[in-house]
Design a protein that fits this description.
234 residues; Penicillin binding protein transpeptidase fold; 9 helices; single chain; mainly alpha
Length: 234
């Protein structure tokens, strides 16, 4: 009898706990949708950015997506299957920018995944996501977006960059400190060359977290966030 009461109590509190979790995340998604519709989308529609998605050549766009989000036009905000995709899509990266208050509580990665999948990717068109990404991505102190990066690192407008210079900028996205073009030019050049191999089809990522396309020096490994680099791929 005592065991029956114990297990019934355990089941009750277990169900209550699950109901509270469901309610929390349902409220999170509802609030994020309201905020997106009433605030984010009108602001994005009215934003005047220096670059449009069409400012990138087809080759530049293809390279960017191969590096940052290979399944961008196929997934719904989250991609944990495509080799080389890593655990953060472009949509998830934008989620971190646009919903900072929602990521301060709970388990941040779960919040990010849910908002990316059920809110941002559903409500914001892919081209609008890309437009914001290329204009706001952090690329070093005081440098946000490809247009500013072209001026800051090469002293020229974005549309005058060579393909190699463009690759040097893309190489910084993964970590603008570790692969900074000014602070670590050789490391940046090496990653840019690896990206060129990927872009030309001469390198195929070996798994989801194969995002560096080769071994990194020990100093670079130590400067990266924990669980970000996996040597066993190489």
């Amino acid at each position: 009898m005592k065991f029956n009461i114990f297990f019934k109590s355990l089941a009750f509190f277990g169900c209550l706990f699950l109901a509270l979790i469901f309610a929390y995340y349902a409220r999170l998604i509802y609030s994020a949708r309201e905020y997106t519709i009433n605030t984010i989308l009108p602001a994005e529609a009215a934003a005047e950015y220096p670059l449009e998605v069409s400012s990138l050549t087809s080759r530049q766009l293809e390279t960017l997506l191969k590096v940052e989000d290979p399944g961008f036009f196929k997934h719904h905000g989250v991609d944990l299957l495509t080799p080389g995709a890593g655990t953060t899509t472009i949509t998830q990266a934008l989620t971190g920018q646009l919903y900072p208050a929602s990521l301060k509580s709970g388990i941040n990665k779960i919040n990010q995944i849910l908002i990316a999948h059920f809110v941002l990717d559903e409500l914001m068109p892919k081209n609008m996501q890309l437009r914001r990404f290329i204009n706001t991505i952090y690329l070093g102190p005081g440098v946000e977006g490809f247009a500013k990066a072209a001026t800051a690192y090469f002293g020229k407008p974005f549309d005058q960059l060579t393909q190699d210079q463009y690759l040097c900028i893309v190489a910084m996205i993964i970590d603008p400190c570790v692969f900074n073009l000014e602070s670590y030019p050789e490391r940046n050049k090496e990653r840019a060359n690896r990206i060129k191999l990927l872009s030309n089809g001469k390198y195929t990522p070996k798994g989801l977290l194969d995002i560096f396309y080769g071994k990194l020096d020990l100093d670079a490994q130590q400067r990266l966030p924990a669980f970000y680099y996996f040597d066993f791929y190489y």
